[in-house]
């Protein structure tokens, strides 16, 4: 007996697998939402930089210290930040290369529908992806490699070191957050003193010998960390007793530059738009907002969140710049 057509159709629907491109796009979208969440947290913490006149930076420093107290932090960053960013970025580049923007005037060889807002939003989503590719790469190189604090262990205490250019208020700020500043000459003197102590080891014995040996080992580790931050003429080494203080001074150093202020402002606006416009499309593609009304509500909420996150980032940048220049 032959199977009715309707039953054949039903069976094929049951056994049919979802297309791989569909699954990849859903995963790409999901990773984008996770990155939007991280962006919100990151800019919230950074927004407290602008408050350091009132609370001596303790809000920012405390938040960063809590992050750096997370066990296996580097592994956590790789698994929950590095890999999602990398995967989302690689797929995003592929989608951007294949994208056909239709919100601009055309000579007739391609569609041109600029009158539709969502077409324009789609175009900007693709454009911001290229801007973010450059901005995130530069940000990671700067903050994770060039300006990332070096560290040394001193007994139970740890020191974090960053390289800075002195400015009129730096010494006062460093004093408020319990950081010490060293010139190149002072570091060299510290190294010579360490060498003298090492020579005197031969004259020591018993408990005094081991106490001095421990101090010398800790001093060598300190010097090794300090030398990683090669000081050029006119720069100083800031040594903070906690990670939050070192990152505070590093971010402050970045936002002393008008050029960096402008570049990071573009970065923040671009990231906020890309993340929260992506959140709106995520709600549609995952079936959360299927009606026009629900899509309008979602658009209002995502636009509001976009504005809040954008504001937090700009407050961090311009507030820090203002306090450095005018206080």
Radius of gyration: 27 Å
Structural class: alpha+beta
CATH architecture grouping of the largest domain: Up-down Bundle
Number of strands: 4
User: Looking at CATH, which topology of the largest domain would you report?
Assistant: 3 helical TM bundles of succinate and fumarate reductases
Termini gap: 90 Å
Strand order of the largest sheet: 1-2-4-3
CATH C-level category of the largest domain = Mainly Alpha
Overall 3D shape: elongated
Helicity, as a percent range: over 70%
- Percent of residues in beta strands: 5-15%
Mean pLDDT reading:
90
Q: Could you name the CATH homologous superfamily of the largest domain?
A: Fumarate reductase/succinate dehydrogenase, transmembrane subunit
Into how many domains do the coordinates divide?
A: 2
Quick structural gist:
Helix content is 71%, strand content 6%. The chain is of the alpha+beta class and 327 residues long. It has a 4-stranded antiparallel β-sheet, with helices on both faces.
Describe the secondary structure blueprint for this structure.
Blueprint: H1 5-15, H2 20-47, H3 52-55, H4 58-68, H5 73-98, H6 117-146, E1 150-154, E2 157-164, H7 170-176, E3 180-182, H8 184-199, H9 206-228, E4 236-240, H10 243-254, H11 258-285, H12 292-326
Question: How would you describe this protein?
Answer:
The protein is α+β, with helices and mostly antiparallel strands and 327 residues long. It has two domains: 20-90 and 118-147 and 255-326, Fumarate reductase/succinate dehydrogenase, transmembrane subunit (3 helical TM bundles of succinate and fumarate reductases); 154-247, no CATH class. The protein is 71% helix and 6% strand. It has twelve helices and four strands, in the order ααααααββαβααβααα. The protein has helices at residues 5-15, 20-47, 52-55, 58-68, 73-98, 117-146, 170-176, 184-199, 206-228, 243-254, 258-285, 292-326; strands at 150-154, 157-164, 180-182, 236-240. It has a four-stranded antiparallel beta sheet, with helices on both faces. A hairpin with a 2-residue loop joins strand 1 (150-154) and strand 2 (157-164). Helix 2 (20-47) runs parallel beside helix 12 and helix 5 (73-98) runs antiparallel to helix 6. The protein is elongated. The relative contact order is 0.13. The model has no long low-confidence stretch (mean pLDDT 90).
